């Protein structure tokens, strides 16, 4: 049995029955196998690669300029430099605030990613055609699963924005 999958131009070849435990499945694709990139993500021409490199280095340049702008007053202005030397507690307060904020954001983002992954799995089950699918008679159950996942994502995002405002 030979079926085609639309994701990343994969071609799915199955040998044997679906119920057979030693079923062989092989996947082939038309992308560069050595770099293991799907066709839509492969750098096919030098101009695409050059544009990518320019964008990356432009972003890094902007980031370095922002750091220079933030550090320059602390180094060049004597009053600010002496204040920072005498009051090292400012560094520690900033570090503690950063760690608390980063941990809170990381937990919320992790929850949002988990909810989005479960939403993706449920949508694949609703669409069907795979090993696990939801029966057409269970449309209320499927709608409820999707609603609960969307609700979880919405509540997680609201919690994240509320934590950012406080």
TrEMBL record:
The keyword Hydrolase does not apply. It is found in: Membrane. Keywords: Membrane, Transmembrane, Transmembrane helix. It is a multi-pass membrane protein. Its main location: membrane. The chain crosses the membrane at residues 56-75, 95-127, 139-161. GO terms for cellular component: membrane. InterPro entries: Bax_inhibitor_1-related. Belongs to the BI1 family. This is Uncharacterized protein. It comes from Ancylostoma duodenale.
């Amino acid at each position: 049995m030979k079926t085609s999958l639309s994701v990343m131009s994969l071609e799915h070849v199955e040998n044997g029955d679906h119920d057979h435990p030693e079923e062989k499945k092989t996947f082939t694709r038309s992308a560069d196998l050595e770099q293991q990139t799907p066709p839509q993500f492969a750098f096919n021409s030098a101009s695409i690669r050059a544009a990518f490199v320019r964008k990356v280095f432009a972003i890094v340049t902007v980031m370095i300029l922002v750091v220079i702008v933030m550090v320059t007053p602390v180094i060049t202005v004597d009053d600010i430099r002496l204040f920072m030397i005498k009051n090292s507690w400012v560094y520690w307060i900033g570090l503690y605030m950063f760690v608390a904020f980063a941990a809170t954001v990381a937990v919320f983002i992790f929850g949002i990613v988990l909810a989005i992954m479960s939403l993706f799995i449920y949508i694949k089950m609703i669409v069907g055609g795979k090993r696990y699918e939801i029966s057409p008679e269970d449309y209320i159950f499927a709608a409820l699963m999707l609603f609960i996942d969307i609700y979880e994502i919405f509540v997680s995002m609201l919690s994240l924005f509320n934590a950012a405002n406080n």
